[in-house]
Design brief:
14 strands, seven-stranded parallel beta sheet, alpha/beta
């Protein structure tokens, strides 16, 4: 099985080389892969004790961020290495101030993994959520380096829990301990013989609580909103926008709209502008004198969405008409009611917020219209959603502290 696994890794690399000819993300990943060993060899990383945190992409980084920052606060003598697999994480956070070294993760071949660990020689390793790189894990285990999965989440559909999954289950033994988000993950791991685990909760609650306590201020956005109700489309895709577009066109001028698409490359922004029949202004063009009450604002950058929710009255979260909804907690931490499409079943927070009447699932344009009209016109519905969202976030935080205190005991 390891031979097949390694063969699959090389197939992935070949596919990335082919895609890089016409895909900018694949090209950035390949460029980043070429620079990794030069970067770490030319650094002073060998001179320090290292805690290594690995995140697949930006979402996983935000999930692990509270642990990184608390670890740094508690261990000032240990330097932090942060690695990413995806350009969407690395490109946004390559200058993250709480990490001393930041780079891509080398491809998980045995030789590259061994070379990387030889140089870094970490004291402790954290993989965030569901990163399973089996050659890295094998080498770390063989060197008795403590390796933790934090905010781990498991589902019955994964290879580990299938009849053919023996080899994959064996690889999980290379983790020192599992810090899990929920009871389902605990039961699944216990069903295949693991007891080195603890339900610590989801560290995203710590992160969004931090944001809500100290959000970045955007005076131009506040001026754009003025006294109008504001609906924010966060991480939207074309399928989401198609459901909302009639409501936007009918209410432009009465309600302010901000659209923050999941992808912000030039072609995507141009396509979005062309699909809107009202006046549109891009954030990059916005100044205090060049917009009016009918404008729809498009956010054509990344990295600020989590702070923009403070200005919204209602948030529509994208992805529910595709592979799955994006982060609804970033809005809920401000007490903002959230609306999303039908593909939310993998997200326990969505189910829980729906049960609290703080989130609302819609399947079509009419349901979307009804949900927005109810929230924007009925103060009782709106205030209940707001209060329940804030209480939900507050009751769920604390996972980062549980993880690091547990590691001290371990």
């Amino acid at each position: 099985m390891r031979i097949f696994y390694n063969f699959g890794i090389w197939l992935y690399y070949i596919a990335a080389c082919i895609f890089s000819l016409f895909n900018s993300k694949a090209k950035k990943w390949l460029t980043g892969q070429k620079d990794i060993f030069n970067y770490i060899k030319n650094s002073d990383i060998k001179q320090h004790k290292i805690a290594w945190f690995h995140a697949a992409s930006l979402g996983e980084f935000e999930q692990g961020r509270p642990v990184i920052e608390l670890f740094r606060q508690n261990n000032p003598d240990i330097k932090i290495l942060l690695t990413f697999f995806s350009p969407s994480g690395y490109e946004v956070r390559k200058n993250y101030e709480y990490a001393d070294y930041i780079c891509y993760l080398p491809l998980d071949t045995y030789s590259k993994a061994k070379k990387f660990i030889d140089i870094v020689n970490p004291e402790i390793v954290f993989f965030i959520k569901y990163e399973f790189w089996f050659n890295y894990l094998k080498i770390l285990y063989g060197r008795n380096i403590d390796t933790y999965l934090i905010s781990g989440i498991f589902r019955s559909q994964q290879h580990f829990f299938k009849f053919y999954g023996f080899w994959f289950r064996e690889q999980l033994k290379n983790f020192s301990f599992f810090f899990l988000q929920n009871k389902e993950s605990e039961e699944l791991l216990k069903s295949i013989g693991f007891t080195n685990l603890k339900i610590s909760g989801d560290t995203r609650f710590d992160r969004v609580f931090q944001i809500a306590q100290n959000p970045k201020s955007f005076p131009l956005i506040q001026q754009f909103k003025a006294a109008s109700p504001l609906v924010l489309l966060g991480s939207s895709w074309e399928a989401d926008e198609a459901v909302l577009m009639d409501f936007i066109r009918e209410n432009a001028g009465k309600i302010k709209f901000i659209i923050a698409p999941h992808e912000v490359h030039t072609d995507r922004i141009t396509s979005l502008k062309n699909s809107i029949q009202n006046r549109v202004i891009l954030l990059s063009e916005l100044n205090e004198n060049n917009f009016n009450a009918n404008d729809i604002l498009i956010i054509n950058n990344i990295g600020m969405l989590s702070h923009l929710y403070q200005y919204a009255d209602v948030a529509y979260i994208g992805g529910g008409f595709g592979k799955g909804i994006h982060n609804i907690l970033e809005a809920a931490c401000f007490g903002i009611p959230t609306i999303f499409g039908p593909n939310y079943q993998k997200f326990s927070e969505a189910k829980e917020l729906i049960s609290l009447n703080s989130s609302f699932c819609i399947n079509n344009k009419n349901e979307l219209k009804n949900a927005l009209n109810d929230l924007l016109s009925d103060k009782n519905i709106y205030n209940k959603a707001k209060i329940n969202s804030l209480e939900y976030i507050n009751n769920k935080r604390g996972a980062s502290k549980i993880i690091l205190e547990s590691i001290k005991n371990l």
